[in-house]
TrEMBL record, chain A:
TM ranges: 17-38, 130-148, 177-197, 209-231, 237-258, 441-461
PANTHER family, per database record: ABC TRANSPORTER PERMEASE, ABC TRANSPORTER PERMEASE PROTEIN NOSY-RELATED
Gene Ontology CC terms: plasma membrane
Keywords: Membrane, Transmembrane, Transmembrane helix
Protein name: DUF3526 domain-containing protein
GO molecular function: ABC-type transporter activity
The keyword Hydrolase is assigned to this record: no
TrEMBL record, chain B:
PANTHER family referenced in this protein's UniProt entry, alphabetically: ABC TRANSPORTER ATP-BINDING PROTEIN ALBC-RELATED
Entry-linked InterPro entries: AAA+_ATPase, ABC_transporter-like_ATP-bd, ABC_transporter-like_CS, ABC_Transporter_VariousFunc, P-loop_NTPase
Gene Ontology MF terms: ATP binding; ATP hydrolysis activity
Organism expressing this protein natively: Patiriisocius marinistellae
Keywords, comma-separated and alphabetical: ATP-binding, Nucleotide-binding, Transport
Domain ABC transporter residue range list: 2-231
The keyword Cell inner membrane belongs to this UniProt entry's keyword annotation: no
PROSITE patterns on file: ABC_TRANSPORTER_1 (PS00211), ABC_TRANSPORTER_2 (PS50893)
Pfam family, one: ABC_tran
Record's keyword annotation contains Nucleotide-binding: yes
Protein's recorded name: ABC transporter ATP-binding protein
Length: 469, 233
């Protein structure tokens, strides 16, 4: 087998057309890695500047009423990670700025796509674009006539007479082409590693390793299937047509069709529906700014009883802060219900879409590629959850200060000094660890492996029917 | 060495070979003459183990090619009408590659000796096969079989398209191989070449061996007349 693989590679290396295409393609890949890296670093810098600026604004508050500060709020910026320079996933469309304030959970805004030029919206030059769409095409063009050419020239007869088994020949040819894809992939990852050497850590290495593994599996599926067709069909045109057809169906049609179907089966409420439902549920709760609110009055009675006093003025605390926090707690439960519902629907969508990997390994590749590069919707949802958790801590700290900081009920003019605002922690994003989210991608990996085994089975069975004369 | 006993072969109901009996002994060259579709290539493919006879027995060195093709192929060198080698490799590299596939490892000088023995000029050894003439490729093809130490050579129209000089060189080479003990079966249209090279000649018509004769008993003109008679009847 090794001899056949070596011979195939001698052909690759000695073919001027192949070499020219490879050099041009590697140059484009390099460019994509450099650009991706440059964009990510630029985004990281911009993100850091904006974060510093907003924090500076916050810690510069001289004196302010804590609840006014809750309305004043702050901003949280979604950090771009190094991994997303390989696969940007949903990051361009999800937005990257969230306003954090009292009473309300704002939506993330300012997606990169919304700020792009019209042409750029069709997709940026990222390594994932080339690795997912173009490398498989190259593999198809390399593999479609590897066996049919041997048959047509009569060399297959000579090879078999020299003792090579048809299965060995076909598997070797598939592996030769596959190795080309693996080599391109390795090259990309090495360049990426060199460019980001200082920032590499075990998390990035594990994620990149898994990324590498899934692409290797996908390239094997493509190479093996193309070589199988090349061996099975009598002429090369037929095998090329078959594989191009599969490529079009797998990469262009099926993902869109499946995604639309999945969205129909498990549809998310529209933005308006979501907001209306939130507003309605919220209206059933306590209104922190309305002293005449029935639930507010009930809370007041309860607190007065607890403290054993008759009026708010006798309370050693500021009831306004307590009412605000009760309002906040209720709002949080409403948000948990609706956001949780959305998360459930998104999980169902993801699960159903993942099942598409049964008929289309490209879906599994896309899922794992985005997932391992921490740029899929799952990671985005994790970010949103962390922001909401921060918002709750942030607002509670302000409300608690209002309640227990020494002011009296109704004293809206009371202010806290700068030291307090400095003590409020900044948002610190904890990137989701791969060990936590890995189970979400097991199904994708399973389908990719299943497809790889299927391709081997096809090759083994197909070889038995191969006509040498 | 080569034996076909009562062999019949048909394709989709059309008889390609009918009750063929043939023996080629060690050191002997048998030429099979016949028009296109006479069954020459089918006979060779059965000997190579790529086609199974419907009935009868095909064997090489007393080993059945149908059931033990892996074994018999080790004994066989096959030279088709067009020896299509890898054009991006030199003659030497092609020979090296095919030898390695057969599990044979030779030094460069040994490979060069094989090529030279088979008539390929040493200047051509390291040139890409893409620039070789048909005759040169035939020589590399024979060198592959020779280096494999084939006991049996099966040639399918080997002289077709060769210029007279190359064709003559091929004749000399085949005689040399036979003198070294090789058993050769050569299918051809070329009456004169077959008459010159082969010890015995068989004429195939529609899958039937209609005539078998010794070449020393017949002149080239007589053979042509005989061949045309059979073809026209």
């Amino acid at each position: 087998m090794l001899q056949i693989i070596k011979n195939e590679w001698r052909f690759f290396v000695r073919s001027r057309i192949f070499l020219s295409i490879s050099i041009a393609f590697i140059a484009i890949l390099l460019l994509s890695v450099f650009l991706g890296n440059y964009q990510t670093q630029k985004q990281q810098q911009t993100h850091q500047n904006a974060k510093d600026h907003v924090r500076q604004q916050w810690v510069s508050i001289d004196e302010m009423n804590p609840h006014s500060a809750a309305h004043y709020g702050t901003y949280v910026f979604k950090p771009s990670n190094l991994l997303s320079s390989l696969d940007e996933g949903v990051n361009t469309v999800t937005g990257n700025v969230l306003r954090v304030e009292g009473h309300v959970q704002n939506e993330i805004i300012h997606s990169e796509a919304s700020q792009m030029q019209a042409v750029s919206r069709f997709g940026k030059l990222k390594p994932s674009l080339l690795l997912q769409y173009i490398v498989p095409l190259l593999l198809i063009f390399l593999a479609f006539n590897t066996v049919s050419n041997e048959k047509q020239t009569g060399r297959l007869k000579l090879l078999v007479l020299q003792g090579a088994k048809p299965l060995q020949i076909i598997l070797s040819k598939a592996l030769s082409v596959w190795l080309y894809g693996v080599l391109l992939l390795t090259f990309i990852l090495l360049v990426y590693g060199v460019l980001n050497f200082q920032s590499l850590n075990s998390e990035i290495l594990i994620r990149t390793g898994l990324f590498f593994l899934t692409y290797c599996l996908y390239y094997f599926i493509i190479s093996g299937l193309t070589v199988f067709f090349s061996a099975r069909w009598q002429n090369a045109t037929l095998s090329l047509t078959s594989m191009l057809g599969i490529w079009i169906i797998w990469t262009l049609f099926l993902p869109n069709i499946l995604m639309s179907s999945v969205e129909k089966w498990n549809s998310l409420p529209s933005r308006n529906e979501f907001q209306s439902a939130m507003k309605e549920d919220r209206s059933k709760g306590l209104d922190g700014h309305n002293p005449a609110d029935k639930r507010g009055i009930a809370l007041k009675e309860k607190v007065l009883k607890e403290y054993g006093v008759d009026s708010l003025s006798q309370l050693p605390i500021n009831f306004d802060g307590m009412r605000m926090q009760a309002d906040e707690d209720y709002g949080n439960s409403v948000w948990d219900k609706h956001f949780g519902n959305n998360r459930d629907i998104l999980q169902k969508q993801k699960k159903n879409f993942q099942l598409g990997g049964m008929v289309n390994p490209f879906i599994s590749l896309q899922n794992t590629s985005m997932g391992f590069m921490a740029s899929d919707n799952l990671h985005h949802q994790e970010f949103l959850l962390q922001v909401e958790n921060y918002r709750r801590v942030f607002i509670k700290m302000l409300n608690d200060k209002q309640t227990f900081g020494g002011s009296k009920t109704g004293n809206w003019g009371w202010k806290e000094d700068n030291a307090f605002f400095k003590s409020v922690p900044d948002f610190d994003y904890k990137p989701t660890q791969i060990s936590v989210v890995l189970p979400n991608y097991i199904l994708d990996m399973f389908f990719m492996m299943l497809w790889s085994i299927l391709v081997v089975v096809l090759i083994v069975l197909g070889t038995k029917k191969i006509q040498i004369v | 060495m080569i034996q076909l006993q009562n062999v019949n072969k048909s394709f989709k109901g059309d008889l390609a070979i009918q009750n063929l009996n043939l023996n080629v002994n060690k050191g002997e060259i048998l030429g099979l003459l016949g028009a296109n579709g006479a069954g020459k290539s089918t006979t060779i493919n059965m000997l190579l183990g790529f086609l199974k006879p419907d009935s009868g027995k095909v064997s090489i060195n007393k080993i059945d090619t149908t059931h033990n093709s892996q074994e018999t192929r080790k004994l066989v060198g096959y030279i088709p009408e067009n020896v299509n080698l890898y054009p991006y490799l030199s003659g030497l590299e092609n020979l090296d590659y095919f030898c390695k596939l057969a599990g044979l490892k030779y030094t460069k000088s040994q490979l060069e000796t094989y090529l030279t023995t088979c008539g390929l000029a040493s200047e051509a050894h390291n040139k890409k096969v893409g620039g070789y003439s048909k005759g040169m490729r035939q020589k590399v093809g024979i060198a592959i079989a020779y280096a494999k130490k084939a006991k049996v050579y099966l040639l399918d129209e080997p002289a077709s398209g060769l210029d007279p000089l190359a064709s003559n060189e091929l004749s000399i080479l085949l005689k040399k191989l036979a003198s070294e003990g090789a058993t050769i079966l050569m299918a051809s249209h070329d009456i004169f070449r077959v008459r010159e090279v082969c010890n015995r000649i068989g004429i195939l018509k529609n899958g039937v061996l209609v005539k078998e004769l010794h070449s020393k008993n017949v002149s080239a003109n007589e053979l042509e007349t005989l061949y045309l008679q059979f073809m026209q009847n």
